[in-house]
Amino acid sequence: MSALNPEHIDLSHTEPSQITQNNFTNHGVDNLVAPSVKQLQQKGIARNYAQANRYLRLSTTLVLISALAIVWWLAPQQDFISINARLLSLFPVVILIIATLGFVVTLYGTYADKVKFYALREHDISYSSGLIFYKTVSQPILRIQHVELKRGPIDRKIGLAKLQVFSAGGALHTFEIPGLPIAEAQKIRQFILDHKDSNRHG
Amino acid sequence: MDKSIIATEHKQESDNVINGHTVDVNEVAEPYSVDASVSETSFSEPRTEMNTQQWQRLSPIAILYFAAKLITTLFSNVVYIAPAVLLSYNEILAHPHIWLPVGLLLFSIMVAVTLLKFYFFQYRLSNGHIEIRSGVFSKTHINLPFSRIQNVKLEQPIYYRPFAYTCLQLDTAGSAKQEAKVVALKVDFAEQLKAEILASYQQAPMTEAAAETDKSTQPSVSDSAEILLNRRSLKDLVIHGISSNRVWIFLGLLAPFLDDIAEYGVRAFFYLGIDIEQLLTVADKPWWQVGLFALTLTLLALFTVTLFSIAGAIISFYNFTLHKIDDRYIRRSGLLTKHEVTMRLSRLQMVVKQQDWLDILLKRINLKFEQSNANMQNIQPGAHNNKIIVPAIKYHECQALIADAYPNNQLMSIDYQSISKHFLLRNIGYILLPIFMLLSIFVFVIEKTMLLWLISGIFSVLTALIYCRWRRWGFAQDEHYIYIRKGLLGVDYYCFPRYKVQQTSIKQSWFSKRKALASISLILASGSQTVPFIDESLAYDWVDEALRVVESSGKSWM
To answer: Cys staple from A128: which of A84, A136, B364, B537, with CB 3.0 to 4.6 Å?
Structure first.
């Protein structure tokens, strides 16, 4: 993964007072491309994110199945609580359904995690995802109100972070990029903060 | 008491905030004789500063406010225990030695709480800050610099009116917690305070995005007079009551109680000598008689509900006026509680021109000026805090208002492009039709042909509705603005300048990608606007253009 170098972008000419329609540019941070969301220089999120997610989904399914199986197996052998026999006979079906669902979700997730991309340009940040329902969200940096890095226990273990960006669009439209290597996430955050500063005092 | 105060909201920015801003002297220079302890500042600052050196208690009239608030919160919670009370009503009545002391105790607790709340509510004005301490057990200390206040609202409940008091509500753009309400101020003092706060906001150093050239050229606040933009008569409000959705909102609210109401109604009629249940027993009556009864009952119900709706419209919009002073819109209305909402033009996110089907027939429009709803949590029901709605206006009035807010706007005249017919294909062909087929086969198999008619009826109504939806959905753009039209039976027009966009998104499914279609969402501070099933290239053009305008203009959204 190529390093992100916010220092290399000359932010001085992006000061709003100087931007006119003619000299406005919005190149990709690493490369020079035309400013269309259609041709973003996209980067995939971390590989081990998909891996960790796959294990997480699989193990959740397994835990659920084994818990149900244990109950199913133990229930007739104890007499503390009486359990309806018909309810018990439903257990294999439920276990089968959960197993199938877990398998499908894991399979879908494995492929869906591979098509999560993000792209950073001079003035905005985009995230695209989706296997069947494809979606690209773009967030102008100028409209960002604050940035957060979120790291759950798994993220911390494998050195990843989730970048959250808040705008006035409200909580429903929080811009999120999951599975970023922590260093990369910090760089993006710094890039956003620097960008805002350069705008504010420009 | 001081030690126990937990300073939850404490922003210390006193050094850089408002030193020596100049409010026009002739308006604010007269000494504030409203409250004895409101004294002129003794510092060397300009005399325009409003200062109360010590902490102020409110006028005792505020007790009324706290009592009313306590009662309303109690009532809204009483709903949950009401069934229990009603069930054991007789039993409770039979034991006065229990309910009497309990009731008395409750009453005295309420009185005590009200008095304590009043006692612990204090405010102070100093150096362009307003500080409010409140709370009996959990104490709150709010410190707001005037320059951070975005919105000043005056709210005058009916019991304040004879004494000329008002509530002053202050909103910040940030968190909902940071809003403050001074519960009882003399009206003229509140007005002066409002003027000063608004003025200081204008002259405070811009901390938001810098390039707000439109603000630096503002004239001073107080030298221009309010211009009346619109006024609504009682007749307009009646029309609004008839045509507005309030009917259905009201029905929705009533839904849990419909059973009880119906039963009560039936019993009432029974006392009048009319047995509705017998009337409604279909068996021994000719069909036309039954039909007529049903129709009459429906009309009667509709009529009652419409009356309520009209009453609702009058209560919230009575004496509606919309003024403009410089770049601020001021809405005043209200029968019982008078609301005054002030909104700066720069805060306006979107204009919505709304017409229900009845509005279309009556040729009226409801115009909404939408503001950021980032702090939706603190909207009191009925206050319409963040929007200015101008109800039931005529076409030319609407035209004038929109032109005033958004010059060179073509909302009323632009040609809308319709969305792709695949919208119909997807919703009817791929979703509705298969469900209909499956159901009909099922019904056919179990041989209930009557049901088949019902299902077909529902299917055709839904199809018609989807078609209406498709017909209504349109979009257009010009140099500055984006226009979206949508609706079902009624029609809504949305218009906003491109630079208000907060975020964009493009969605495509695997199917629509093959058809080169996409849907776009433009997220504004007032909510998101979606246009589905448009040309893929057009979708990218719109998004690119919106992003370009937002990023290159550097204009602030508020």
So the answer is: A136
